[in-house]
Write a structure and sequence with these properties.
22 strands, protoporphyrinogen ix oxidase, domain 3, seven-stranded mixed β-sheet, alpha+beta, five-stranded parallel β-sheet, Polyamine Oxidase, Chain A, domain 2, binds flavin-adenine dinucleotide, about 35% helix, FAD/NAD(P)-binding domain, 16 helices
């Protein structure tokens, strides 16, 4: 008798994490299982894409995973690569926000984007006295009467005032989703802030309490800091999960797209183009709109729900410079002392953020070089993607030159386009996903996981893939 067969579709981090978990656990439980993973592109990793070239390590997609969500670090430990995990360079621990075209440092002592140190907050030119006073009044703003979801903009404007939202919160939080805080729901994106309000009645009080608790807690395992990466780029994690999955018996095929699915009483049949697959269950780790097309015939209502999860497009443009070329109009060296800057919406710029990669991460450039990465596109800025590659790079470079006050020309340019790449968790997203989950359970042999559902970050995707593997096994 053939062993039960599971097809995992999509070789991004979700699909890979699911495949490894499924095969390893089945082996540990002595349960024969044939796991196959297919990926339509000729490489694995999906949105995770590292280019290594002549001593440069360039991240085309994500450049970090956060340490406070443990799934990514836990996976690295399981894979035996935790010694390759690197933290951001502590010497340059500073991020800037652009205001009126100038780079202003985010005030020190900000815990989860809420100020917890008085002196740097009082002295920052980022906010007017009125805006600072309004933030200071935050503990006196009553809790929300309603319990449901709310837009990021509505929640933070009510608690911190409009300037606090526009200049501190939106560029940093909505920026993670390349989204618009007026549409993103807080329950799906950052439920922690809703809890902070619910439990403490105030974000400031909650942030002070969290700081006091953190001071007493034992130091976290692994490199310090909120943002982590891998020594040779995030593809190291992809390669390592893929190797572990293969080792556990998973068959991985790249350049193989799923074209159609037929759900039968005895299992599932899949059209893979030049061959057919037959088995017991399929786990779709593809973007929601792709999954929608694949199941539209069998489950049109679920497909409709999946199609209603909107996506936005982004681009990263990375420039390598000779450090000596980074000088301002008066011939002084331009400082790269920091991790880069974010650009608030009211500034109406063409870039939404810029990372000084060679300052943020160790070992990403050959000696004497600097690497600067721009982030473009996102909600309200997607028209920039209509431009041709050269033009797009020129736009990004022009913005960086203006903001940083220099005219240097890059020695190398890398451009990565990400059409329909970032799912947008609108108000009510978690409830819709719960309903979606109920509907999916009614279709034997169908499972979904990935960035569209319970978190877009790398740790969320790993957790979602592994949870799907556990569901399939049970
Ligand atoms: C520019 C950018 C920057 C980001 N920055 C960060 C960051 O710093 N930190 C962070 O944590 N997250 C970040 N993210 C988000 C994070 O990278 C993604 O949410 C995550 O990698 C998605 O993983 P996934 O496996 O769910 O989906 P994907 O990576 O999209 O993988 C899905 C895979 O399915 C394949 N596929 C599609 N259709 C088919 C088919 N029919 N048959 C077979 N295969 C198919 C695709 O080719 C793809 O490889 C960023 C994303 C982008 C785009």
């Amino acid at each position: 008798m053939r062993p039960p067969g599971i097809l995992i579709v999509g070789g991004g981090i979700t699909g890979l994490a699911a495949a490894r978990k499924l095969a390893v656990e089945a082996r540990q439980q002595n349960r024969p299982l044939a796991v196959e993973l297919i990926e339509s592109e000729n490489r694995l990793g999906g949105k995770i894409r590292t280019e290594r070239e002549d001593g440069y390590v360039v991240e085309g997609g994500p450049d970090a995973f956060i340490s406070i969500k443990p799934a990514a670090m836990a996976l690295c430990r399981t894979l035996g690569i935790s010694d390759h995990v690197v933290g951001t360079d502590p010497r340059h621990q500073k991020t800037f926000i652009i205001k009126n075209g100038k780079m202003l440092a985010i005030p020190g002592g900000m815990t989860t984007f809420v100020p917890t140190e008085i002196a740097p907050f009082i002295s920052t030119p980022l906010l007017s006295w009125f805006a600072k006073a309004r933030i200071g009044l935050e503990p006196f703003i009553p809790r929300r009467a309603a319990d449901g979801d709310v837009t990021m903009a509505e929640f933070f404007t009510r608690r911190l005032g409009r300037a606090g939202y526009e200049w501190l919160v939106e560029p940093l939080l909505a920026g993670i989703y390349a989204g618009d805080g007026r549409a993103l729901g807080l329950a799906g994106t950052f439920p922690r802030y809703l809890e902070m309000e619910r439990e403490h009645g105030s974000l400031l009080r909650a942030a002070f309490a969290a700081r006091a608790a953190a001071a007493k807690a034992p130091p976290p395992k692994g490199p310090p800091g909120l943002f982590l990466s891998m020594r040779d780029g995030l593809c190291e994690m992809v390669d390592s999960v893929a190797a572990a999955a293969r080792e556990a018996g998973v068959t991985i095929s790249t350049g193989t797209a799923l074209r159609g699915l037929v759900f039968e009483s005895g299992g599932v049949r899949a059209d893979l183009g030049d061959r057919a697959w037959q088995g017991d269950a399929v786990l779709l780790c593809t973007p929601a709109f792709v999954s929608a097309d694949l199941i539209a015939e069998r489950a049109p209502v679920v497909a409709g729900m999946l199609r209603r999860i909107p996506y936005v497009s982004t681009v990263t443009a990375t420039f390598a410079f000779d450090q000596r070329a980074l000088i301002d109009a008066s011939g002084r060296a331009v400082s790269l002392d920091g991790y880069g800057f974010v650009v608030p919406r009211p500034e109406q710029r063409q870039i939404i953020a810029c990372t000084w990669t060679s300052s943020k991460w160790p070992g990403r450039v050959p000696p004497g070089k600097a690497l600067i990465r721009c982030y473009l596109g996102g909600a309200g800025h997607e028209d920039v993607l209509q431009r041709a590659d050269d033009d797009l790079a020129e736009v990004a470079l022009g913005e960086v030159r203006k903001i940083m006050g220099m005219s240097a020309s890059p020695e190398r340019v890398w451009l990565h386009r990400w059409p329909d790449a970032m799912p947008q968790y609108l108000v009510g997203h978690p409830e819709r996903i719960a309903t979606l989950g109920e509907r999916i359970r009614e279709i034997p042999g169908l499972h979904l996981a990935g960035a569209a559902y319970r978190g877009i970050g790398i740790p969320d995707c790993i957790q979602d893939g592994e949870a799907a593997a556990a569901r399939i096994l049970s």
